[in-house]
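Entry for alpha-D-galactopyranose complex. Fields follow.
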Amino acid sequence: MRITNPTIFYSVLLLALLHVGCKENKKESQSEMETVKTDSKQNPIEETVFGEMPDGTKVKKFTLKNEAGMEVDVITYGGIITRWTAPDKNGLYEDIVLGYDNLEQYLDGNPYFGALIGRYGNRIADGKFTLDGNTYNLATNDGDNHLHGGEKGFDKVLWTGVAKNNEDGASVELTYTSQDGEEGYPGKLDVKVTYTLTDDNELDIQYQAVTDKPTIVNLTQHSYFNLSGRLTEKVLDHELHLNADSFLPVDGGLIPTGELRQVSGTPFDFKEPKLIGAEIEADNEQLKLGLGYDHCWVLNQGEDDFSLAATVHHPKSGRFMEVYTNEPGMQFYSGNFLDGTLPAKNGGTYAQRSGFCLETQHFPDSPNQNDFPSVRLDPGETYASRTLYKLSTK
Ligand code: GLA
C-alpha cells in the first residue's frame, strides 16, 4: 500500500515511532522483570529425614541445589555437610567432601567430618581460660587440652533447620542455643549459621552469635575436601595456595607457642601454589609435631577484611576452589589422623591424608594469648563471621 496523503503519512509515521518506543519500554520492563525474578529465585530445597537420634528425634537433611547443578546436603545433627557435588573440567559432578552414608556412622565416631565447630574451634591450653578474673574449666578432650568445643560441641548437637530462598540462592538457616555453663563456657549463647548455595557455585557460610554474659566464641566449619572426587585417595596431588606470610608454630600438644614465624624458606610457604605433598615429609620439627600440616596460618588481611585466603587446584580433574573469609587465621589440616579405619561413603576406607580441611578461624588458644586477636564477645555485641567456598574449574 502506498500512502499519498501527507496527513495520513505523518500519522502512520507517528504511530510507527510510538510502537517502537513502546517496544523499547517493554524491553526495559522485561529486563526489570527478569531482575525481579532473579531477586526472588526459587531454587529447590529438598527437606527429608536423614535418620533418628537414639531418643527418636528425627534428624533432617536439607538438599540445596543451584541452577548449575551443584548440590549440598546439610543435616541438623552437627550442622554437618554430608555431601557436596562439584563439576570437573568435563562437567562431571562428583562428591568432594568426606563423610558417611548414615546417621549411625556419624554418631559412632566422627573426626568432625563436615561439622560446625563451636563454641571454640581448635585448642585451648589445659582447657582453662580467665575472663574478668573468673577462671573457667573446659573439658580436656585432646590430651591435656580442650578441642573443638569439648565432649559435646556444636558438631554433636541438634540444630533447628529452616529452608529459605533468598536473593543469593538456596539457604538453610540453622539455629542453636547453648545454655549458660554448657561445656564449661560462660553465658547463654544464641547461634545462627546460614549456608547459602549461589548459582555461581559458591557456598556462603555466615555465622552469628549473641551472648547474655561476657564469653568467648570462635566458630568454624570442618569439611574435609578431596577435589578429585576419589574420596579415599590421598590429597597430596592438590596444589594449595595460602595467602599468608606467617604461621603459628606449636608445641607438642599443638598449642601455639605465641611466635608468628615467617613461612619463607620453610615447608609452610604456600605463598605460591604448591603441591600439598611437595614437602609434607620434609625433615622439619613442626611437621613432625603435627604429623603433617595441622597449623594455623596468619592470613594477610585484605583491605575490606573479607578477602581471598586460599585456593586449591586439583589439576587432573580441573576442580578449583577459592576460600574467602573475614577471619584472621586459617587452620590447614592435612587429614593426618585419618588412619584407614573409617568407612568411606562409596566403599573402602578413608586413608591418611585423603582429605584436607581449611578451617577459617581466630587463632588457637587466643583466650590465653594476649597478643592474639581477641575472641571475646560481650552482651550487646553480635559475633559475625563469614566464609565463602567457591568452586570452578581450570
Ligand atoms: C582439627 C585439629 C586436628 C584434628 C582435627 C580432627 O583440624 O587441628 O588436630 O583434631 O581437627 O581430627
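NOTE: Residues 6-39 form the longest helix (34 residues).
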